[in-house]
Design goal:
The chain is of the alpha/beta class. The chain is built from 11 helices and 11 strands. It has 2 domains: about 160 residues, Rossmann fold (3-Layer(aba) Sandwich); about 120 residues, Rossmann fold (3-Layer(aba) Sandwich), CATH 3.40.50. Helices cover about 40% and strands about 15% of the residues.
């Protein structure tokens, strides 16, 4: 649970905080033993409309390009067959797996893809970019444990210490503590008017929503919208997903990489633009999404963070702190009270 703060306990500005965490991310690549001169691939593109995952992807693209001095030699989503990747890899290619919050048994498609890659490419260096770990049924992991422990060049980055403890307990693996890649986004690419008015919300409606989520409507001021991330235009989304399915069938050849990367980056960029614009509308935001917190920080936007169902935000803030625009609340009643006192 988040330890509440009616006043922000941090003296760091948003710019200072973002710069510090971006630096920690780059240091994590060095700690993982990533050879800057080596070619690399970036796998498990978030082919869906979750804005947080899109922000992570764009941060990864930016920081990896800076670290290696070049872009990836191949990219794909979790629907791509690992066996088809062989022709895209040389012996010294580093395999990076996209970060996020899908390590464990909640988001099974991405976990299964991760396990297939690790099982298939035992002779390649594999770096799992920063994740949060959650196993609801930790005893059902014997096969996963075998796959991970049999790989001798696997480095795992995690976004909080509780995830590190669970990875050690459940899979017997050590990990590096590294912040979220969204802090590595070039914010100048997303100009937005951050003045905003009133109180806004960004609250989960998926499997990670809080058990007491139905209480928030009774606490908010009248006419306050209760929102999760807004969806894109239906026609635009259908066309983007259709292109993604076509991309999945494409051969893993460098000649078509620019087309795939342009589509992926364009899809992610539109998601992040939409998310930043949504957050910018309000003077202060109440959010239980980790990337509601992170993108608000990138905007320098005052916001109140309240935890999701299993402590993702609390664990992240405990590991890396907050900026002076972040206020922490233990429940919705306190979150609304803090927000009202700031407006």
């Amino acid at each position: 649970m988040l330890e509440s703060h009616t006043t922000s306990p941090s003296s760091e500005t948003s710019e200072q905080f973002v710069s510090r965490l971006a630096g920690l991310y780059r240091a994590g690549l060095t700690q993982a033993g990533a050879e800057a001169a080596a070619p690399y691939v970036l796998l498990d593109f978030p082919n869906h409309i979750n804005i947080g995952d899109s922000a992570i992807w764009l941060g990864e693209i930016d920081v990896l390009h800076g670290y290696h001095g070049r872009g990836p030699s191949f990219v794909c989503d979790a629907g791509f067959s690992p066996e088809r990747l062989r022709s895209a890899l040389s012996e010294d290619t580093i395999i990076y797996l996209h970060g996020g919050g899908n390590f464990g048994d909640i988001w099974k498609m991405h976990q299964l893809f991760r396990e297939k890659i690790i099982a298939t490419f035992k002779n390649h260096q594999i770096i799992q970019l920063p994740q949060s770990v959650h196993y609801g049924v930790p005893e059902a992991t014997a096969e996963t444990k075998s796959i991970f422990q049999s790989h001798k060049q696997l480095s795992i980055m995690l976004r909080d210490r509780k995830s590190q403890s669970q990875l050690k307990e459940v899979l017997g693996l050590e990990s590096l503590l590294v912040p979220d890649a969204a802090f590595c986004i070039n914010a100048s690419n997303f100009p937005v008017d951050t003045t905003g008015r009133g109180l806004g919300t960004l609250l989960r409606t998926d499997v990670e929503k809080r058990d007491d989520a139905d209480q928030v409507a009774t606490l908010l001021p009248p006419n306050t919208a209760i929102e999760d991330w807004r969806r894109p235009n239906a026609l635009q989304l259908n066309w983007s997903l259709r292109k993604s399915r076509l991309v999945r069938k494409a051969p893993p050849k460098r000649a078509i990489l620019p087309l795939i990367l342009r589509h992926y980056n364009g899809f992610a960029t539109e998601n992040v633009k939409r998310g930043l614009a949504q957050l910018a509308e309000a003077q202060i935001i109440i959010t239980d999404r980790l990337h509601g917190h992170i993108l608000s920080t990138l905007l320098g936007k005052p916001h109140v963070a309240i935890d999701n169902s299993y402590g993702k935000i609390a664990n992240f803030c405990a590991a890396f702190g907050t900026d002076k625009n972040t206020y922490l609340a233990k429940d919705y009643k306190e979150a609304v009270s803090i927000a009202k006192s700031i407006i």
